[in-house]
Specification:
- The protein has 454 residues and is an alpha/beta fold.
- Helices cover 43% and strands 14% of the residues.
- Bound molecules: 4'-deoxy-4'-aminopyridoxal-5'-phosphate.
Length: 454
């Protein structure tokens, strides 16, 4: 059951969003352009954003924890990034040709990312995992890809199951059963299960994973697991792909691979890489990446080469935004600022929740936070969750009345977060934003107290 006090406060605060949504429903299926924006009775509509804040079409201010779906580690409309974009805008948005900025951008990725001997830019994170998987299959001349249950890698056919449903590897609507049959889905944090799987199948090309756990650590991987996967895949002669679309340039300048000291064969990037504009990349071992490079040998090109196109790959505008961003995060200071703000936020929220007698637990690592709604009222700490002591199906609810009420209630309180539920903290979230966030949670709790959703 929805909490009616929260829903009516939400409606009262956001009439402009309601009006826009009525129009959107006539245009877009479901009334939205991305599934995470689905919200009952209607989604929040935003008019502008700056730094750590955004304002809706009614002029209400919010502390933003969606941060351009994690792309904006430096905050909205960062002056240096905006300047780089406007300067490039005046020089043209698409040359249909090679250009210097793309080379500098690629060189910067190589400088920062341990596995990046070569780089190929794409149009999005989804395109990046699509390309990485195809490269792995072509290079290994094997078909099967092993994934971890719950790990998100975009929405293309190869990865469109086993994230929130179809954990048995069956094909969801619209995906060919033959595609789903070429995957194997492994429980996370279970190295013995992965070893059994690699022994069972002799056709595995690669293992792909979110290196800090499903949905940016919503279901954390226990310490040392990524290293164990690296050792096991190396021993079994299977490639390892880190999907760093969200961790890349966020958890360390060189991504999770730098933070964890584990180097994959290939890695995928998007979000921060592209400075808030659309873009992505695959980076990795030169011999693997050179599966794209044409050879003089026509027969090899036909039998082994992976062709790769994409109208907006490394377009000058994205290259300008991405390069400006990567230069700003290179020294690690922005990342440290975001990490510090997130740690402060998690501590302050947990103190407040404990004082108020709510069983929710705020946890996470680096600049992320997640809200565990603790449906069974377990006596757990963030450290227990990090150590894998809470089952993953309790950590990844994603839908349901409690998550709905939390999102709507927090919007009423003045903040916006992902429906995980959780968010990404930026380098420009400071003390004032943390204070405002604690107040937003208090407002939500007050509304929920009389009528807690079940
Ligand atoms: N992989 C991961 C780990 C992601 O977080 C995302 C986006 N949330 C994607 C892939 C897909 O990226 P995009 O939305 O740019 O296609």
């Amino acid at each position: 059951m929805r909490n009616s006090a929260i829903v009516s406060a939400y409606k009262q605060k956001t009439p402009g969003s309601a009006r826009l949504s009525a129009r959107a429903r006539e245009v877009f299926p479901g009334g939205v352009t991305h599934d995470t924006r689905l919200l009952d009775p209607y989604p929040l509509a935003i008019a502008r954003a700056k730094g750590a804040r955004k304002w809706d079409v009614d002029g209400n201010e919010y502390v933003d924890y969606i941060g351009g779906h994690g792309a904006l580690l430096l905050g909205h409309a960062h002056p240096a990034v905006s300047q780089a974009i406007s300067e490039q805008l005046a020089k043209g948005t698409h040359y249909g040709a090679a250009h210097e900025l793309e080379v500098e951008w690629g060189e910067q990725v190589k400088r920062l990312v341990p596995c990046a001997q070569k780089v190929r830019f794409t149009g999005s994170g989804t395109e990046s995992t699509l390309l990485a998987i195809r490269l792995a299959r072509a290079f290994m001349e094997k078909n099967r890809i092993v994934r971890f249950a719950g790990h998100f890698h975009g929405w293309h056919d190869q990865v469109a199951f086993g994230v929130t449903s179809h954990f048995d590897g069956s094909a969801p609507p619209g995906v060919l059963p033959g595609v789903a049959e070429q995957a194997a889905i492994c429980p996370p944090n279970d190295i013995a299960a992965l070893e059994r799987m690699l022994d069972q199948f002799d056709d595995v090309a690669a293992v792909i994973m979110e290196p800090t756990g499903a949905t940016f650590g919503l279901v954390p991987l226990v310490e040392g697991f990524a290293k164990q996967v690296r050792e096991l895949t190396a021993r079994k002669g299977v490639l390892l792909i880190f999907d760093e679309v969200i961790t890349g340039f966020r958890v360390a300048p060189g991504g999770a691979q730098q933070l964890l000291g584990v180097t994959p064969d290939l890695a995928t990037f998007a979000k921060i890489l592209a400075g808030g504009l659309p873009g992505g990349a695959v980076a990795g071992r030169a011999d693997l990446m050179d599966t794209i490079t044409p050879r003089a040998d026509r027969e090899w090109n036909l039998r082994h080469r992976v062709p790769h196109q994409g109208t907006f790959n490394a377009n000058p505008l994205t290259a300008a935004a991405g390069l400006a961003t990567l230069r700003l995060i290179e020294d690690g200071r922005a990342i440290a600022d975001a990490d510090r703000a997130a740690a402060g936020l998690r501590d302050r929220l947990n103190d407040m929740l404990k004082r108020q007698g709510f069983p929710w637990v705020v946890y996470g690592a680096s600049s992320g936070f997640h809200v565990f709604l603790n449906p069974r009222e377990r006596d757990v700490t963030p450290a227990d969750i990090a150590a894998g002591r809470v089952p993953s199906d309790e950590l990844k609810p994603l839908t349901g009345p409690a998550v709905h009420d939390l999102r709507c209630g927090l919007i009423v309180g003045g903040m916006d977060l992902f429906p995980w539920p959780g968010g990404c903290v930026s380098a420009v979230h400071g003390e004032a934003e943390i204070e405002a966030t604690v107040r937003a949670f208090q407002t939500c709790l007050e509304l929920a107290r009389d009528q807690v959703a079940v």
